[in-house]
Design a protein that fits this description.
This protein folds into two domains: about 50 residues, Winged helix-like DNA-binding domain superfamily/Winged helix DNA-binding domain (Arc Repressor Mutant, subunit A, Orthogonal Bundle); about 80 residues, Lrp/AsnC effector binding domain/regulation of amino acid metabolism (RAM) domain (Alpha-Beta Plaits). Strand 2 and strand 3 form a beta hairpin. Helix content is about 35%, strand content about 20%. It has a four-stranded antiparallel sheet with strand order 2-3-1-4, with helices on one face. It contains five helices and four strands, in the order H-H-H-E-H-E-E-H-E. Helix 2 crosses helix 3. Keywords: DNA-binding, Transcription, Transcription regulation. It holds the Pfam family AsnC_trans_reg.
Length: about 160
């Protein structure tokens, strides 16, 4: 389980390299972190097996996919019982617009990150997901003007 995994400085260095580019070859990674190629491959295999590396993905620019508009939504529910939370979570998991969803503490219950083609698509989403759900008390919309820092961009 991930909670029991201890990462040494080589594992941390490997993960930082992969966070920037998961297509980096084992040979290049070995040179970057100061290990042999076989040691890098063994460590990567263990990091995946232990759930430290959850997925190897390609991040595609949203404009190419026809969804250039990033919207964050703060959602407050009427009730937070287990059944109500599970129902809302299931609903947002099934929507392709939802790129991220977090159950949070504070004044709101969920924060959603959406990628949509435009305001018309967002309005359809709000009608289907929020307005038609009697357990959604309120939602606030935050429109992204410009991507400043994202998890997929390397730190400079």
């Amino acid at each position: 389980m991930v909670e029991n995994v201890i990462l040494d400085r080589f594992d941390q260095a490997l993960l930082e390299c992969l966070r920037v580019n998961n297509q980096t070859s084992a040979r290049v990674l070995a040179r970057q972190v100061g290990l042999s190629e076989s040691a890098v491959l063994r460590r990567l295999r263990n990091l995946r097996k232990n759930g430290v590396i959850v997925a190897d993905v390609s991040l595609v620019h949203p404009s190419v996919l026809g969804t250039p508009l990033t919207i964050h939504v703060l959602v407050s529910l009427e009730r937070e019982g287990t059944a109500a939370l599970d129902a809302f979570e299931q609903k947002v998991r099934g929507r392709q617009e939802v790129q991220g969803a977090w159950y949070v503490t504070g004044e709101v219950d969920f924060v959603l990150q959406l990628q949509v083609s435009g305001m018309g698509a967002y309005e359809r989403f709000t009608r289907e997901v929020f307005h038609d759900d009697p357990n959604v008390r309120a939602f606030r919309t935050i429109i992204t003007l410009r991507d400043v820092v994202s998890f997929h961009r390397p730190r400079l």
